Structures are given as C-alpha cells and as structure tokens.
Q: What sequence folds into this?
DNA sequence: GTTCTCACA
DNA sequence: TGTGAGAA
C-alpha cells in the first residue's frame, strides 16, 4: 500500500478531527454539507475522515481566516486540486509513521491547539 | 462516552 | 454557527 492510498484511509471520527483541526464538530459537518470534504461512513453511520480530509479542513480554516466565504473557499480549493496534480511528495513508510507519531505525541500549546496542526499541513504540502 | 440528525426562546 | 433533544 503506497503513501497516497494510506492518506485516503478512513480513520478518524469527528472528535479526533476536531482536535486535529481546531474546528468545531458543527463546522466540520457544515463544511461537509458544502462538499468541502467527503468523509466515509462507518456501519453505524459515523463519519470517518482520512488524512486527505483533515488536510482539506486545515486548508479551509486557513482560507476562512483569510476572509474568504464558502464560495471563495470552494473556488480556491478547486483550483488547488488541478495545480497540485504533479507535486505530491514521495515519502517512505517510515517517514510517514514517524511524522504522525511525533505530531500526535506533541504537547498542546498554551492556546490548547495541537502543534500537529501546522505540521500536518506542511507535511503534505511540500517537504 | 461519542456521534448522528433535526430544529430553534 | 451554537445548542439541546432523542436515538444509536
């Protein structure tokens, strides 16, 4: 299984994603309604997010912080999709696991937000 | 204990 | 966007 496939595995329930992104469950569900993310569903109809979903939510938050509205976010997210086709990073399994483990074990900042936030973002961006 | 959907003094 | 109800 390659890195790309692993990034799409439905793994996290909304509570985890909440802490990973700093977004409220309400916002996360709201963004799903607007098709900004497409989490899979468990047998019990529970949302399961992949790394790709988490990454997108972090980007959504960034764009929203920049003052964009839902429409603006959708537009820029759509453009990013095409422009990003060629520069996806190639990482070894070890790099992936090590990075994730470190991020999850990092202590929270005084603001209560996990450092994993920025790390995950940069991680998939370029490296 | 968590998450889901739906509705709103 | 938040909050609470009722169910799973």
A:
């Amino acid at each position: 299984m390659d890195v790309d496939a692993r990034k799409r595995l439905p793994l996290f329930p909304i509570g985890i994603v909440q802490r990973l992104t700093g977004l409220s469950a309400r916002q996360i569900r709201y963004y799903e309604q607007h098709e900004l993310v497409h989490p899979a569903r468990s047998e019990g109809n529970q949302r399961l997010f992949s790394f790709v979903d988490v990454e997108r939510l972090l980007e959504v938050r960034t764009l929203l912080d920049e003052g964009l509205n839902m429409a603006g976010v959708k537009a820029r997210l759509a453009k990013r999709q095409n422009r990003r086709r060629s520069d996806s990073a190639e990482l070894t399994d070890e790099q992936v696991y090590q990075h994730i483990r470190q991020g999850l074990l990092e202590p929270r900042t005084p603001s209560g937000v996990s450092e994993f936030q920025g790390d995950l973002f940069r991680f998939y961006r370029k490296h």
